[in-house]
Amino acid sequence: MNSRHGIAHPFTETAVSGFGALVQPLVHVQLRADPSRDWSLQIRALVDTGASITLIQRPYLRELGLDPERLGPPQSFASATGAATCHAARVDLRIGRRRQPDGPILSQRTVYFTDANLPVPILLGQRGVLDSLQLVHNNCGSSPSFRLNMP
Amino acid sequence: MQYHGQHVALHPTRGVVAHGVELDAVVAEVRASGLPLDDIVLDFISDSPF
After folding, report:
1. Interface with chain B: mutation pick from A16, A41, A76, A81, highest number of B CBs within 10 Å
2. What SS3 state is found at A6?
3. What is the pTM for the complete model shown?
4. Number of structural domains found in chain A
5. CB contact A84 to B (< 8 Å)
6. Edge-to-edge, what's the strand order for the sheet holding A134-138?
7. Structural domain contains residue A2
8. What are the domain boundaries of chain B?
9. Model confidence over B1-50: pLDDT tens digits?
10. Number of Cβ pairs closer than 8 Å across A and B?
11. Domain annotation covers residue A3
């Protein structure tokens, strides 16, 4: 597989007061509890290569129809901004836009729902998600982009 | 809940088509709008950018 294989996602540039333009690898993700359910609406996610686990804002539990009683026990984790609590669950993830149905699908991966103040709805971390994908990062030149492919 | 910001629904040409503190309300507003759901992406505008 060469480095130009797969969908090229442009980096997202956002103007933030005091910091100037922030450029981030943001991607659209869809979730579902299992194959018997429909995919969710598209949700913005940050490709967070420094994160060990995938974190999702807790309100998305209800969008997926997941029963909070069936989540794992509370677990503490440390982030760049402090400690917080999360609960494990297993979900399917589809990477890419709805109109790009050939995006990678990751089945029944362990993710963690949290009330912590995440900067985006989903932080895609290494274990079970990014470590299952080939990430091609090309942030040089006039049209920087990245690709997330099945290896 | 420790969130500091708002959930938003974004459309590629119309921009923000729904927003609010509660995700459920934002999704309900989008579904009632009649806009093609394939075009919508849910995002979160945090009070702190990163």
Report:
1. A41
2. coil
3. 0.92
4. 1
5. yes
6. A9-10, A145-149, A134-138
7. no
8. 5-45
9. 566 889 999 999 999 999 999 999 999 999 999 999 999 999 999 877 66
10. 66
11. no
